[in-house]
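Second attempt. The first submission of 14947_t:CDS:1 had a stray character pasted in from the spreadsheet, which I only caught after the job came back as garbage. Lesson logged: always re-copy from the clean sequence file. Corrected sequence (479 aa) follows.
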Amino acid sequence: MEKMKAVRFNQKGDIKNLVVEEIEKPTPKQGELLIKVHASAINPSDAFNVLGRFQITTLPRTPGRDFAGIVVDGPPEWLNKEVFGTGGYSGFTFDGTHAEYVIATPETVAIKPENLSLIDAASIGVGFLTAYLALDTANIKEGENVLVIGARGAVGSAAVQITKFLKARPIGTFTNNPLPEIGADFVDTSTEDLKKKVLDLTDQKGVDIVIDTVGHPAIFEKAFSSLKVRGRYVVMTVGRSDNKYISFDGLDFYRRELRLFGLNTLNYAREDAVKAFNILKPGFESDALRAPKNIKQYKLDQCIEAYEYVNTKPKEKIVFTPDTGETQLSPPQPTPISTPFSSILTLRHAAMISTWIDRLLKTNNEILGGYNPLIWKTDDDTWAPEADSFIFSLKNSSDFSHNTSYPIISRVKDKSKAILYRSMSKGPWFGSCDLGMGDVIDPKNWYCELLSYDRPIRMTGESWFSIVDYEVFQICKAI
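This time the job returned cleanly.
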């Protein structure tokens, strides 16, 4: 019987009840998918679940709602596909995603957008699903004005992006500190009168929709009165238990034919999430929608620290990246990356490069590399834009046809910072700090940190590392 690691809790009420246990690795039934989890996000609702805020939760339980990974067992047409998902009572009435493997069905997972890493895909789950469902509940239409209460948070920022993607106009609220530049009008509720500012921004008409991600009674009253005739208001959370009641003018409510909706994402199954993500997929692939920029990674063994950090309402998105060893592909199935990442090299070519290299990292059998379609030159820290550049991590093998190690390919995400030309004292660099030589005086001291490319190629958490040797190859195009 194979085992896997999973975060578990047998009692509610305290984050310290979390433990990491070795439990039975799930076996897929006919038609099911076994997914190796590469990333699973921790949402505030996951922490609330452990703290006992949800009566429906049965124990013992593995928490977690969002995940992204690679299909390693199941129907042949699904093997090695990169998928992600969320939704339903995952982590509440059945075991969730804070584990090394999860079981799903083809109907309950979405194919990952090509330009998102698996970590990115895991980070968008509950936030973007909730935002989409709220706007869909309100029956958003092109050109409408949408007020987003709490536009700084995961759901709020997603709602602003989706509103723009659906060709409506977002107006966001924040308190004290400016919001990131995401192309919307904003109201600082700490210094501005919410209703007055909204009316000023809408030619005194009011907004068509309010998406309330905060649930504070004082904010509700002002936002509700900012609606235009037949306006729609969506509530998805409430304040503390002693501050959970809201009130409004009933006469005004019926005379202006307003609509008030409640939204509970637990009532939406994983299949519903897939439908939502398929609608949003073109937005991610066109960069109209973007995953959170600040993502902090933890290992499963750090579950208490990670959950406690989520409880502090951090600005970063918190994601588990389980250590599950090497992904075993199933030859002759296709590689997980189905689209060309270079006009010259394929994934197989990249793996073949490993057979040319006889010097590796000092600590393991790992080979790191990158493809620069341009030239290397010395300069004073200038950028070279390039769309075809990529970096990779491989395991050495004398025969790739028998090498089942999974190559990690990281394509350039910020094309304006694909290549960095350093000074004479520095070696070649890919991206801001994604892969580069520290100093020519010590050419075996290298640096690797995810910034400009779409996925990390090292999972150790250490940015600086030592190598045994490095080589540079030139690839010549046919004339």
